[in-house]
Amino acid sequence: MSDSLTMAGDFTVGLPHLDFHTLSEDFALGHSMDCHWKMLANSLGLKASNWFDRKGDRMYAAAIYLSTWFDLEHPVGEDDECRVNSEMLAVRKPHALSTTRFLVNDTCRAEVRILTSFVKRNRAGSNKKLSVTRDIWLEEDFGGSRIDEILENHHQAKSMPDLGKTYGTTEINRAMDFNAADLFYFKNFVRIGKAMEWRQNRGSAPQLNVSRECYYYGNADDGEMIKTRVAREKAGGQTSHHTADGKRIFLSSWTAQDLANEAPD
Question: Is the pTM of this model over 0.70?
Answer without folding.
Answer: yes
